[in-house]
Amino acid sequence: MTGTFRAIVLTKDDSGFKAQLGALDDGALMEGDVTLAVTHSTVNYKDGLALSGSPVVRRFPMVPGIDFCGVVESSSHPAWKKGDVAVLNGWGVGEVHLGGYAARARIKGDWLLKLPPPFSPAESMAIGTAGYTAALCMQAIIAHGTTPQSGALLVTGAAGGVGSVAVALAKAHGFHVIASTGRESEAAYLKSLGADEIIARAELAGEGRPLGKERWAAAIDSVGSRTLANVLAQTRYGGIVAACGLAGGNDLPTTVLPFILRGVTLAGIDSVMAPHARRVAAWKLLAEKLDRQKLAAMTKTIPLSGVFDAGKAILKGEVRGRLVVDVQA
């Protein structure tokens, strides 16, 4: 298949930054050994940043979209053949390599994963980088030796993409789940995903003490800044905090006390450059533990043209759960 295809294109020049839905031709595609017809993508926090003109984009023109699912059209990579269905998360796609908000993509076959059963292409993007990151966080907590008998598991930013999947996964693993959110109206939604307790974001957002009451054995934090500092200060002895985001800021105003007095572990979670084996294990965990009915309940589907408004909303913290982008719609 050749010709032009729809794409959201970011440009930046002397006249400023622009994000527009238009068309590209095959000549615009970048180097790679696999070409795919993209069927679905999603909207993550990083996508919202890209659409806003953030420095997260390091090459122009750029097609944003750090995730996609698509069907292989052609391949010179030994692992991929025409008709295969593949999923991509990260690897700088949507930042330095043309991303998923286009009907066609050409990338390195080493970056791709086979569509994990039992998920459909749309479900794989309902999970997306947000859900895959939540799975990486759960992997770190499990590898640390933390179990439901160790104590509760806290999820911050719980109504967002990472948080929604994290709540469902933590409950599936048998944890008592504490969900932190700034949206009281989402309490019923979070409890439907498996939250046992809801606490207000304000409890963790203010200036706290270096050490507080021990409240949870593990935490998944996508917020950062003071929230992460307060989470660490209230983690039980020998506990672990998996940090994967910076929605509240990239600073960390804490002390060494949680680490040297309580033996708390701060585990950094990177989804972009995670090695292949870790990715496969994370998707295996999702296939085994993520309730597909809960996934459907946290998901909304939008057309490619809806990405602009969705990008603004996700930066304002107004998006509940996950957004699937039907790239062909």
Description:
This protein has 2 domains: 4-115 and 298-326, Alpha-Beta Complex (Quinone Oxidoreductase, Chain A, domain 1); 129-268, Rossmann fold (3-Layer(aba) Sandwich), CATH 3.40.50. The chain is of the alpha/beta class and 329 residues long. The chain has helices at 45-51, 121-143, 161-172, 187-193, 202-205, 225-233, 257-261, 276-289, 292-297, 307-315; strands spanning 4-13, 16-25, 34-42, 67-75, 85-89, 104-107, 113-114, 153-155, 177-181, 197-200, 216-221, 235-243, 265-268, 299-303, 322-326. The protein has 10 helices and 15 strands. Helix 2 packs across helix 3 (161-172). The radius of gyration is 20 Å and the shape is globular.
Helix and strand arrangement:
Layout: E1 4-13, E2 16-25, E3 34-42, H1 45-51, E4 67-75, E5 85-89, E6 104-107, E7 113-114, H2 121-143, E8 153-155, H3 161-172, E9 177-181, H4 187-193, E10 197-200, H5 202-205, E11 216-221, H6 225-233, E12 235-243, H7 257-261, E13 265-268, H8 276-289, H9 292-297, E14 299-303, H10 307-315, E15 322-326
Parallel strand pairs: 8-9, 8-11, 9-10, 11-12, 12-13, 14-15
Antiparallel strand pairs: 1-2, 3-4, 3-6, 3-15, 4-5, 5-7
Helix pairs in contact: 1-10, 2-3, 2-8
CATH H-level name of the largest domain... which superfamily? Medium-chain alcohol dehydrogenases, catalytic domain
Low-confidence regions: none
Annotation, overall tally of beta strands: 15
User: What count of structural domains?
Assistant: 2
In round numbers, the mean pLDDT is 96
CATH architecture of the largest domain: Alpha-Beta Complex
Strand composition percent: 25-35%
Assigned CATH class of the largest domain: Alpha Beta
Give me the Rg, rounded: 20 Å
Give the overall shape, derived from the CA principal axes: globular
List the total number of helices. 10
Helix content: 25-40%
CATH fold annotation of the largest domain: Quinone Oxidoreductase, Chain A, domain 1
Q: Helices and strands, in N-to-C order?
A: EEEHEEEEHEHEHEHEHEHEHHEHE
In this structure, how is the largest beta sheet organized?
Answer: 7 strands, mixed
